[in-house]
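ESCALATION

Customer reports they have been waiting on this structure for their group meeting. Please prioritize. Original submission:
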Amino acid sequence: MEPITINITILKPIQKVWDYFYNPKHIVKWNFTTPNWHCPKAVIDFREGGSFDYRLEYKDKSFGYDFSGQIVEIRDLEYVKSILRDGRTIEVYFNKIDETTTEVVEVFEPEEQYSTEMQRVGYYAILDRFHKYVENN
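Update from on-call: job pushed to the front of the queue and completed.
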């Protein structure tokens, strides 16, 4: 399957965008698709070879899943490549547009269980929630 690419432009400096994307105290505030979901746990050892483990679930606890894996490569304020537990890769690019504007681009291998479009919509919903969280905090 072809990788899925999504991107969003955030009207904040790259350092803030980077920090909010990888800091667990912020991850739990934005890492879910819709208001009936939440991210009750975010643990990350942010270094090459480190791991991350995020829990996403319905607020009523009727369904949830772990989003976890290992960080393979970090280029400070530019790029992070991770391998999810199921072997798929996800790459996140941080592009400094100017002093107050940052573009975030995610490239990920889709999973087999859900349609590519459903995955694109879900990842984009999370990225859009991140964008709003960074701009408003």
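Sent to customer with the following note: The CA atoms of residues 37 and 59 lie 5 Å apart.
Escalation resolved.
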